[in-house]
């Protein structure tokens, strides 16, 4: 695909054509690549996963390369040549997850990708030298880095290499079984611009250092801590006090019991739009402070041990709410469906598998969902 405003005329730079062919041929060497059947058109920019842009000189350059899970199973570890990528002088995005990459030949060549903004190396068996040390090699353009599901285990030198990524906006370290001992102290020191952090699928229950370090990320808008064996005491209070611009918080699939201190902290996050507490161990009634979280668009409290009646007023001020999930709890008593009358934006509501009786006999109000 060619990305520009006045047509796709112009030719791909010859050096970049050759680099695409070399990348194709190395992907499944010596067995040949499935890309031989996919990358067949004369127009290289029409190839699947290749996106191009035309510059002011009418030269066409590769802008993005997306090669997710293209390597054939059974071929073993792949060691692509990072120097080959330097021929793509305008490259901004490289998605190459799920291709059995163990390391790069000449990984320091990645430092020359001065326009690279997004890099996805997830689901690869990377070793500790798979990335250059960014404190020495400043890849100032890099804004998104995805390193999810590195197997068989995440190498500690690779984490230390991440220190110094000062312009990072989005970082994904999910599904790596990381613990407090795994994380170098320098990792979050320079991430003052970070807006999205995914640490789901790790083991952060006793990771006081990691979780406290998150409190310094003042620009963080999205935080995913799901599936981490967390309990109420695992989460430092500073997380609720310092992350004032947080818009999305996912703490689902943990061992949270919902102490008063936990909910009083959650309710301080006045800009929160998405709150996911699904599949925890939260007991008791709904904390009234939830009714003051007026920015909420999505609230998921399903698969917990909530009990008691649901106050008719607790959701009345959550007028922006589009999704509400309260299923698989122990709520009882009488629930007036008219309690949701103010929620004109509500599109998705799940109240199943509870013990309450729902009163829908309110002729003056018809739900919009």
TrEMBL record:
Primary localization: membrane
A GO CC term attached to the entry: plasma membrane
Membrane topology designation: Single-pass type I membrane protein
Subcellular location: Cell membrane
The entry's keywords: Cell membrane, Glycoprotein, Leucine-rich repeat, Membrane, Repeat, Signal, Transmembrane, Transmembrane helix
InterPro entries xrefs: Leu-rich_rpt, Leu-rich_rpt_typical-subtyp, LRR_dom_sf, LRR_N_plant-typ, RLP_Defense_Trigger
Domain Leucine-rich repeat-containing N-terminal plant-type: 14-52
GO biological process, one term: defense response to fungus
A Pfam match: LRRNT_2
Gene3D superfamilies linked to this entry: Ribonuclease Inhibitor
SMART domains the record matches: LRR_TYP (SM00369)
Family assignment from sequence similarity: Belongs to the RLP family.
Protein name in the entry: Leucine-rich repeat-containing N-terminal plant-type domain-containing protein
Organism: Solanum chilense
């Amino acid at each position: 695909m060619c990305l520009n405003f006045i047509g796709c005329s112009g030719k791909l730079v010859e050096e970049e054509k050759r680099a695409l062919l070399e990348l194709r041929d190395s992907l499944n060497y010596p067995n040949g690549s499935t890309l031989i059947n996919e990358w067949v058109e004369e127009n290289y920019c029409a190839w699947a996963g290749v996106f191009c842009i035309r510059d002011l000189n009418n030269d066409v350059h590769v802008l993005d390369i997306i090669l997710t899970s293209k390597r054939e199973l059974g071929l073993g570890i792949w060691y692509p040549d990072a120097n080959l990528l330097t021929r793509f002088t305008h490259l901004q995005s490289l998605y190459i997850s799920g291709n059995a990459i163990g390391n790069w030949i000449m990984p320091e060549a990645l430092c020359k990708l001065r326009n690279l903004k997004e890099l996805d190396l997830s689901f690869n068996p990377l070793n500790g030298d798979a990335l250059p040390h960014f404190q020495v090699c400043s890849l100032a353009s890099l804004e998104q880095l995805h390193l999810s599901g590195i197997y068989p285990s995440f190498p500690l030198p690779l984490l230390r290499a991440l220190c110094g990524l000062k312009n990072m906006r989005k970082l994904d370290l999910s599904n790596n079984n990381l613990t407090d001992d795994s994380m170098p102290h320098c990792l979050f020191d320079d991430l003052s611009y970070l807006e999205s952090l995914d640490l789901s699928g790790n083991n952060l229950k006793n990771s006081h250092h990691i979780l406290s370090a998150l409190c310094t990320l003042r620009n963080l808008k999205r935080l995913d801590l799901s599936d981490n064996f967390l309990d109420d005491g695992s989460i430092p209070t500073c997380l609720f006090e310092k992350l004032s611009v947080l818009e999305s918080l996912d703490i689902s699939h943990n061992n949270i019991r919902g102490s008063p201190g936990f909910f009083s902290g959650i309710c301080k996050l006045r800009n929160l739009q998405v709150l996911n507490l699904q599949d925890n161990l939260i007991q008791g009634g709904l904390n009234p402070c939830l009714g003051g979280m007026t920015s909420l668009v999505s609230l998921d409290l399903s698969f917990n041990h909530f009990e008691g009646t649901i106050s008719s007023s607790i959701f009345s001020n959550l007028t922006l709410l589009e999704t509400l999930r309260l299923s698989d709890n122990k709520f009882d008593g009488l629930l007036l469906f008219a309690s949701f009358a103010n929620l004109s934006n509500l599109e998705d509501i799940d109240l199943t598998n509870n013990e309450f009786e729902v009163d829908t006999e309110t002729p003056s109000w018809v739900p919009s969902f």
